[in-house]
Amino acid sequence: MRPVSIRVKLTAWYVLVFGVVLACFCISIYVMMERKLLHSVDRRLQTMAELISKTELCAVPNFLPPDFERRLNRIFGTRPVGKFVRVLDLSGEIGSRTDNLDEDKIPVNKDLVREVVTTGEIIYETQYPLGPQVPIRFINFPVKSFQGNKVRGVVQVGTSLEFVRESMRNLLVVFLILVPSLLFVAGVVGLFLAGKALKPIREIARTARHITVNNLDERITVPVARDDVGQLASTINGMLDRLSLSFQKITQFTADASHELRTPLTIMRGELEIALRGERSAQDYLETLGSSLEEVERMSKIVNDLLLLSKSDMGQEVLHYDPVDLRSLLANLISNFKVLADEHQIQLSSSLEEVEMVSGDQLRLRQLLVNLLTNAIRYTPAGGKIDLTLRRVDEGVEIAVADTGIGIPAEDIPRIFDRFYRADKARSRQYGGSGLGLSIVKWIVDAHHGMIKVDSAVGEGSIFRVILPITRDNAAAFI
Ligand SMILES: Nc1ncnc2c1ncn2[C@@H]1O[C@H](COP(=O)(O)OP(=O)(O)OP(=O)(O)O)[C@@H](O)[C@H]1O
Ligand SMILES: [Mg+2]
Question: Which atom of ligand 1 is nearest to the CA of 435?
Answer without folding.
Answer: 19
